[in-house]
Amino acid sequence: MSWHRWRPYVPVASRRARAAREMDALRRKGRDIQPVTIAGRTIARTFWGRAWCAHLEKFSDYANRLPRGRTYVCNGSVCHLEISRGRIMARVSGSKLYTVDITIAPLPPAAWESVKRRCAGRIGSLLELLQGKLSSEVMAVVTDRDHGLFPGPREISLSCSCPDWAEMCKHVAAAMYGVGARLDEKPELLFLLRGVDHMELIAADVALAPARGKARARIADADLAGVFGIDIDAAPAARAPAARKDSGGNGRTRARRQRPAAPPAPPEPAAITGETIRALRARARLTQAQLAFLLSVSRAAIIRWERTPGPLGLQARTRKACAEALAMSDHEIRQVLNAVPRWRRGT
After folding, report:
1. Do 74 and 43 contact (CB within 8 A), yes or no?
2. Is 262 inside any structural domain?
3. pLDDT classification of 90: cutoffs 50, 70, 90
4. Which terminal residue of the chain, N or C, has fewer Cβ atoms less than 10 Å from its own Cβ?
5. Number of domains present in the structure of the chain
6. Residue 305 to residue 278: CA distance in whole angstroms
7. What is the rounded average pLDDT of the residues 6-24?
């Protein structure tokens, strides 16, 4: 009788140390190593990352292997994750350092045109798109299981160098969850992965914006938790409103009516002037074309504003975009601009 000889168990700390040495060796050879680092047990914290993870968990094909993948990505086993057009390359630490290669089919042109058509007139600016400040209509479009931006199982080809026979092994699952964490940092990578240009959404929106002045609100975390059913950091519970006595003097009490809290909004300056625009450009070291792109206006508008004395007569959506840009740090502004090819930023 022959007995199968199992591989000896290797502690997580030992696996990570060995993987770190191998990654350092690749880094010394000039490879751009991009590890996935998770703080705590919550993989994704922004709209795009959460939506990606929730989409994966909708498919029964992946249900058995996803829990192990969550553990692997949370304990730092995804040593490298690179996202390019139609491809995800990863190195995941297990008993050995395994190579994961995931191919994603491009979004069909008809599906992309449908997404652009349904989102047109509902996206305020590039800032709103990348920061997840989307209306419920746009959220429903981009996260649609069959006609949105996320790929279905038939559009995904999975490969791993480990000996596991399953199509989605725990190393592949860890890499797929790692994509959710990476979209927290660079949501534009989702569009790159599906082979489409996210700037086309903005162009379609700007074309219809004057005729469709719909209100836009940021998706609340509580709403995301209900829609997606994924890990969201719980906020401290609000204190219950104090009861006050009925004016009739009969000793009965009634609860004080509590007004719904308004969604948070960036502080808006009292007046935006040409000097305000010039100061913003100087602080963030932007060209006129870059600032125009950031605010979703023309370069000619920036030139005209900077020459105008006194307060500028801006439309509500433009004032909002200016307020958001003024509230951002220089680093955050650079992150938004770096999401777009250099020739589109006017540099």
Report:
1. yes
2. no
3. very high
4. N
5. 2
6. 9
7. 69
